Amino acid sequence: MQSDDSFSYSYFPVIQFYDYGNEIKQKLSIGYGKELPIGSSLEIMYEENNPKRILILENNPQKKLYIIFIIVGISSLIAGLIIRIL
Fold it and tell me: Which residues cross the membrane (predicted)?
């Protein structure tokens, strides 16, 4: 029987930014596999009416999924136009 003494940690960083002069500080609900240094910059997107709803775009699997959907959608559109012309 093998013993695995390794542990996996998730870090939940606190994001701080300003929205029209108002300081927004929010602990993320999605953890990172590595600890981010204090003062690190991240690319984020947030809802204008609810700035505490934050989506991190940097190293986000959802961002990659969005890009794939856009590429597939554009490719399908082009293929549909070509088929319609022929």
Answer: 65-83
Quote the domain boundaries for residue 71.
14-85
Total domain count, the chain: 1
**2 located within any domain:** no
In a domain, 1, yes or no: no
Distances (CA, A) of 78 to 7, 48, 57, 64, 68: 48, 33, 27, 21, 15
Helix (H) or strand (E) holding 54: strand 54-56
At 8-60, the pLDDT tens digits run 677 788 888 888 888 989 887 777 667 778 888 878 888 888 888 887 776 65
Q: Which residue from 14, 20, 9, 66 is spatially nearest to 42, judged by alpha carbons?
A: 14
Of 6, 30, 27, 8, residue with least CA distance to 16:
27
